[in-house]
Amino acid sequence: MKILKVDHIGIAVNSIEECKKLYSDILGLSHAGNETVNEQKVTTAFFPVGESEVELLESTAPDGPIAKYLEKKGEGVQHIAFRVENIEEALAELKAKGVRLIDEVPRKGAGGAKIAFLHPKSTFGVLVELSER
Ligand code: ZN
Q: Which CATH number covers residue 121?
């Protein structure tokens, strides 16, 4: 498998609107827009930073994965995403090497990306997302 770059850093927040004040007004990053991914019960907001992006994640439902995360751990870095050349190939290779996968098959992420998560139990406590676009 080939990792091309850190695609983005996912940060769970209670309110994108509130958090935008920091990333736009104070840190001076441009807001590339919001997108709601209904299957994940999440709205995302992207702020490009050089080759990577900051992704803010706000839950759209009390039973969504981000709502559960916020309940348990509060706001903060939720995942790190690596851009890979070929996500199916990467998942097959990782599985063969004994890495626990949350998604055996890629699903649809924001921006039309194909994404899959690795289990934090296999990645020293970090929720790792693979992304191909
Ligand atoms: Zn992400």
A: 3.10.180.10
Neighbours of ion ligand 1 (CB under 5 A): 10, 55, 81, 129
Angstrom distances, CA of residue 40 to CA of 58, 71, 119: 11, 16, 17
The structural domain count of the chain equals 1
Q: What pairs with residue 47 in β-bridges?
A: 54
Domain that holds residue 89: 3-132
The CA 54 to ligand 1 mean position distance, Å, reads 9
DSSP collapsed to 3 states, 5-18: EEEEEEEECCCHHH
Summarised one tens digit per residue, pLDDT across range 43-68 is 999 999 999 999 999 999 999 999 99
Reading the block at residue 122, the tokens are 């296999």
**pTM of the complete model:** 0.94
